[in-house]
């Protein structure tokens, strides 16, 4: 039976999305995530040494974020999505085979490099393939589901890490994590890619120059680039402190994981609803951010477990807004510099996240975690106000 063009296009979209959802799940289904700090501590590392490893990880991501995006525009994006999990797998293998500060440091560099290779390349590949199939309007919905798959994987890893650790120790957890990374690399090979490297640039430096030139020349691209870190950095950093916020409500430590699952469920719901939010436009995105910011302020300031329901709603709004900001950026970028500029947005997010970590430490050390969460609702209200002004200006222009 011969497929009609529409039916054939739907089949190709389904192949792309199935691969994407599987890849997104496997990238996050790493049992080491919830327990690697325990591995470091059991090896005898001090708090200072553990903190230095986290810093090394962050620095690696910052340094490689933009060059890796430019490389993705110059070569095969699928190649980078395959190579990234392999580097991460090598890092995890080092951790469990040669547990020491040096091995942990090398592992974090490999993990940071692996993550940087996929940042920008994944979004660019998916958007370009959807555009080729006349389905670019589905990007936000599809990426929202992909991020939801990743969040579900994180929750599943949280649930399985404890039993596997009790059964086989760090070796079993590490082996499972390496296996998942290898499966992610194998899944990456299933991504369709009809863009030839020859369509890009002769080198990654040429790709970088072209991408940055586009941002300088197009005001709408610059605005979309700034919106991504403005939406994603603050709540991405606050997520690291949610266990402390939950404990501050007075619940027993054994209850903390269950309330964290509530917050993660809110973020997952936001991912799944992101596609519907694309119809809202700039004013609608501003309303989502304002509503989520107010929910965060009221929920965190409440100081009770019931307030965490509002925090979960806030995280759902922020997750949806993050997907929508990414979709807005993709629509404004020309094909040749897509991965480069997506990585520039990622770099902005990394730097803004580091700034939030510093600000949070200053605020929470003198007050409380609830107060810090409340204060960091303000940037979202400010971003919403800027978007409303821009939306009003756009309507006023003939």
TrEMBL record:
The chain crosses the membrane at residues 20-40, 46-67, 79-98, 104-127, 148-166, 172-191, 221-238, 258-275, 282-300, 306-327, 339-363, 369-389. The keyword Amino-acid biosynthesis does not apply. InterPro entries: MFS, MFS_DHA3_Transporter, MFS_trans_sf. It holds the Pfam family MFS_1. The keyword Transmembrane helix applies. Keywords: Membrane, Transmembrane, Transmembrane helix. It comes from the Bacteria. This is MFS transporter.
